[in-house]
Amino acid sequence: MKKDQWIMGIETSCDETAVAIIKNGREIAANIVASQIESHKRFGGVVPEIASRHHVEQITIVLEEAMKQAGISYGDLDAIAVTEGPGLVGALLIGVNAAKAIAFAHSIPLVGVHHIAGHIYANRLVAEMKFPLLSLVVSGGHTELVYMKEHGHFEVIGETRDDAAGEAYDKVARTLNLPYPGGPHIDRLAHNGEPKIELPRAWLEEDSYDFSFSGLKSAVINVIHNAEQRGDKIAPEDLAASFQASVIDVLVTKTVKAAKAYEVKQVVLAGGVAANTGLRTALEESFKELPDIELIIPPLSLCTDNAAMIAAAGSVLFEKGKRADLALNASPGLDITIHN
Ligand code: KG4
Ligand code: ZN
């Protein structure tokens, strides 16, 4: 009988200290996330030094909790997968060093994982992946369409030329005086408003799968300023609904177009903005019309940063023979295309 495979995932690239343990690549045995959002809220965004300090304080506690929840010992682990980049260098270093310390102390193989590969592989915890596959990656730092012809192969066919979708959400939220991170607040407001304010959609060149959200963000700010100057009142619900409609329109239209052009079997949603209820519904509606393409949308807990997704990607890369040694370093600008 084949022995079970146990992989530990460690994620500290931004403001969540997370450790997870998964069995046979797809079963979650433990998934612990310590969020620092409360500490960063009053600054309106993530403060790198504060993030690093929290990771140092939390990592051992989170590690112990994950091991306890999974009910295994270090000797049972087949590999430790850790986010090596991209992200905040000081934050990444805490996870990388923790992973190296455990790998060294218990002679366990180490696997470096790209953060976005992790977001994409969160989907493997939901359904088996079918190739060729297209992933729409929408997070606080990334907006990308990633084509995968097989496991571990990542080709970025479109990306944002300025702000990431999550970044645009957070900036617009700030102008509406909503707390950080603003995405969930805009999402909630949007449901109580009407998309009746005309806002631009950046389609870019006819054949481009790239995105651009900075013009939309500026348009929202202009609408607010113009209304203030005229002494008019704009319902924040309507502004949120109009902004959300514009973001979703572009994301969904380009995803559908790319899915058809690349003749993919599956489309998977990834990243923190994948928690957006409007985006989830719009994608479901569009792919209902395309029954040959399976759409996978992970549950909310697997969309935002977590370590189960890092372990899921690590499991596949480990099977493919990828290994890191104790010289593994944090790579804040790591490129996904050369990482597999
Ligand atoms: O993937 P993630 O947890 O961290 C990064 O790797 O960036 O994504 C965080 C981003 C934030 O910008 C946050 O505002 C956004 O995801 N977000 C949302 C929603 N929930 C989180 N954006 C829109 N609607 C949501 N419901
Ligand atoms: Zn992320």
UniProtKB/TrEMBL annotation:
Binding site for substrate: V137, V138, S139, G140, G141, D170, G183, D187, N276
Gcp-like domain location: 27-311
Assigned EC number: 2.3.1.234
Record keywords: Acyltransferase, Cytoplasm, Iron, Metal-binding, Transferase, tRNA processing
Cofactors that this protein relies on: Fe(2+)
Main location per the UniProt record: cytoplasm
GO biological process, one term: tRNA threonylcarbamoyladenosine modification
Cell compartment(s), UniProt: Cytoplasm
Catalytic activity: L-threonylcarbamoyladenylate + adenosine(37) in tRNA = N(6)-L-threonylcarbamoyladenosine(37) in tRNA + AMP + H(+)
Residues bound to Fe cation: H115, H119, D305
One Gene Ontology term, aspect cellular component: cytoplasm
Gene3D superfamilies: 3.30.420.40
Main function: Required for the formation of a threonylcarbamoyl group on adenosine at position 37 (t(6)A37) in tRNAs that read codons beginning with adenine. Is involved in the transfer of the threonylcarbamoyl moiety of threonylcarbamoyl-AMP (TC-AMP) to the N6 group of A37, together with TsaE and TsaB. TsaD likely plays a direct catalytic role in this reaction.
Family the UniProt entry places it in: Belongs to the KAE1 / TsaD family.
Name this protein carries in UniProt: tRNA N6-adenosine threonylcarbamoyltransferase
